[in-house]
Please model this.
Amino acid sequence: MKLLELKNMKKGFGSLEVIRDISLEIYQGEVVAVIGPSGSGKSTLLRCLTFLDTMDSGELTYMGRKAVTTDRSGRAVYAPPETLREIKGYFGLVFQNFNLFPHFSVIRNIIDAPVVVQKKSREEALTEGRGLLSKMGLADKENAYPYQLSGGQQQRVSIARALALNPKILFFDEPTSALDPELTGEILKVIRDLAAEKMTMVVVTHEMTFAKDVADRVIFMSDGVIVEEGTPDQVLGNPKHERTKAFLSRLES
Amino acid sequence: MDLSMILMKLAEGMLVSIEIFVLTLLFSLPLGLLVAFGRMSKCLLLSLPIKLYISIMRGTPLMLQLMVVYYGPYYLLGISLPRGYRFIAVIVGFVINYAAYFSEIYRGGIESISLGQYEAAKVLGYSRTQTFFRIILPQVIKRILPSVTNETITLVKDTSLAQVISVSEMFIAAKALASKEQSVVPFFAAGVFYYIFNYLVAFVMEWLENKLAYYR
Ligand SMILES: Nc1ncnc2c1ncn2[C@@H]1O[C@H](COP(=O)(O)OP(=O)(O)OP(=O)(O)O)[C@@H](O)[C@H]1O
Ligand SMILES: [Mg+2]
Model:
């Protein structure tokens, strides 16, 4: 099943064209790794897909529901706020620097949105939240505050927070970049476990081994376009385009 | 005249000072938040006049502002106001002055919260109001508490300015008594009153700070 369809997206900041023309489809159960040099527009792409930024033109459909269409003059037209609010429920986003709420305990970080936004009962949210926490290996941290946790633990809480809203797609923007190298493993393991449960995920990453091992599909972006996409073997093992080759060889050296 | 007599005579003034203090905080803290919103508004028609208002409030003496609020309606507009207006004028003068100071404190606090907090809340589906009151404001309050304490302590001492429009707060009472009794004891008592008042304020604020110290 197609969860997300993006067509001919463009996005610039002032005179700087950041996303030139990107089309993309995400299917149920897929893990897609997005790689590319710094400044190629990976974060901008995720931010537009999650409505943190607005695209200039393009069409965006989640689960068959149109979030963004383009009018005849080529400008992006967003669906009315109520529709966007519902569509927001289809995805979650995990940030590079977690952005946990420091004044909430770990469990409150996880259950607050389900209770306040989704109007779940506190008991139900608590049960689910505790389940997620133990899945993240943090059952004993329920009452801790974010400042008391390591970066890796904070990132796991932020993944639990996103999962608590039962998204269909989870986006990650470099979930391990803010972590000490020895802590990246625990996050990658969590993502791997989620992949095993057929969670649909789009992960912007610099971890090539992760892209190779976990992703079903790798997208290589450069200068605001998708240069090459395919299985990890194709893109990482046997790149066709010069830009991909150059990028990968720069990483190895 | 013994000390207890002096204290009795000063008691009424003390009550007025406390009233000015409480009413000023009660109104200027919420009003300051509204002013801060106006100041941060993208609409220049709103933010520019508010910027001017804040700079006037901060750039001129509170004593002068009190006089303008009290005498202004009559001298500028020819409106004569009832006798009770004296006290209302003091409260209005203090509230608009302190709201200006508090608004800048709020603004600093609000602007110090990272954009990531707003973005996380937005992706999780919180409305703008929910984001502000559940996520942002509690963190702002913690951060601005030390500055608010400073302002509050200044306010305790500033209440004595109400004397310029003859509202009989603590200080006027002490002055009258001192000249009547030819003694400095009333002034001394007044000093002790302000000191204890501020000691209590500092105590309460410290308690609040400790209450919010459960996170960083
Ligand atoms: N809010 C903004 N205003 C202006 N320019 C921006 C803004 N956000 C991003 N850019 C620019 O857009 C380009 C793409 O940025 P983006 O963050 O999407 O890159 P990226 O691929 O995520 O890079 P990195 O790997 O370093 O995270 C960069 O040149 C950046 O400077
Ligand atoms: Mg980025």
